[in-house]
Design brief:
Shape: globular
Low-confidence stretches: none
Order of helices and strands: HEEHHHHHHHHHHHH
Radius of gyration: 24 Å
Number of helices: 13
CATH superfamily: MetI-like
CATH class: Mainly Alpha
Mean pLDDT: 89
Number of strands: 2
Number of domains: 1
Strand content: under 5%
Largest sheet: 2 strands, antiparallel
């Protein structure tokens, strides 16, 4: 291929990429740079007030509300991530079985993922409502709750966390289920046949073949869910509004209130970059654990 042909092909490729690069720069790269600039200033909704340097980045160290919001976010991560990973694996195993209704199962498992956070949150809120809610109604019918007894799901902190966690898993498990399902379908049937010839039972195949082969997918799902759980906001805002008494308020909600309610955009931007740093650290730790596991498997 001649040099002029190569240059022409490069120019064509660059021309095709330019629209995307322009939009990506305007809507992603520039806001990141602008946010960093805002975080170095005292900044209100009306604009820049004054330069404060790193004061916004040191302020959160003595901000108890920031510490509480970060603690609530970590609680949600600990509650939701293992539950979601396990449920996604179980649903994928069911959806991968050679039965006539497996297409229907896949659709049913993924369907909640297509609804908006507002719809999913209001469904959960009314499902767990006292007196007329579906969950309390079932508990009354089964005799677990006596006449006149009601569980106030959104008033007690532990119950509120349970509601938010279950709603989040129900709403988002479909995507992780599809990742597991795709990985399951990549496992060669010959491996199962060889295991059956060797006399391996179904549960032995699961723990000795399936789960080890699903490790890369599990690492991916765990990383994605940790990032998503640290960014939780919509469902908590709509279901509990951070209550009761601020006991479920996550970090994103505190950042939102600081910027748009308290009119302190500089401090809110700084906390956003602190959250970004936390996510980067979590991702690096997860990747290190993954590489260590892969080396042990190869040894």
């Amino acid at each position: 291929m001649s040099r002029s042909r190569k240059l022409r092909d490069m120019a064509t490729g660059l021309g095709l990429c330019l629209p995307f690069l322009a939009l990506y720069t305007v809507f992603t790269i520039w806001p990141v740079i602008q946010g960093l600039y805002v975080s170095l200033h005292k900044w209100s909704l009306m604009g820049k007030v004054k330069f404060v340097g790193l004061d916004n980045y040191t302020k959160f160290l003595s901000d108890q509300k920031f510490v509480d919001a970060l603690e609530h976010t970590i609680i949600f991560v600990i509650l939701s991530v293992p539950f979601l990973v396990i449920m996604a694996l179980i649903l994928a195993l069911f959806a991968n079985r050679p039965v006539k209704i497996r297409r229907g199962l896949r659709v049913a498992y993924y369907l909640p993922s297509i609804i908006s956070v507002s719809v999913a949150s209001f469904i959960a809120k009314y499902m767990f409502a006292p007196y007329m809610g579906f969950v309390n109604g079932v508990l009354h019918l089964t005799g677990i709750l006596g006449p006149g007894s009601e569980i106030q799901w959104l008033i007690d902190t532990n119950h509120a966390w349970a509601v938010v966690t279950m709603m989040t898993v129900w709403w988002t498990v479909g995507f992780s289920m599809l990742l597991y399902l795709s990985a399951l379908q990549d496992i060669s049937p010959e491996i199962y046949e060889a295991a059956e010839i060797d006399g391996a039972a179904k549960w032995q195949q699961l723990f000795s073949i399936v789960l080890p082969l699903l490790k890369p997918t599990t690492y991916l799902i765990v990383m994605l869910q940790i990032i998503a759980s640290f960014k939780v906001f919509g469902q908590i805002q709509l279901i509990t509004a951070g209550g009761p008494a601020g006991s479920t308020k996550p970090l994103i909600q505190y950042i939102y209130e600081t910027g748009f309610t308290k009119n302190n955009m500089g401090y809110a931007a700084a906390m956003s970059y602190v959250l970004f740093a936390i996510l980067v650290i979590c991702t690096l730790i997860q990747k290190a654990v993954q590489r260590k596991g892969e080396r042990e498997d190869e040894a």
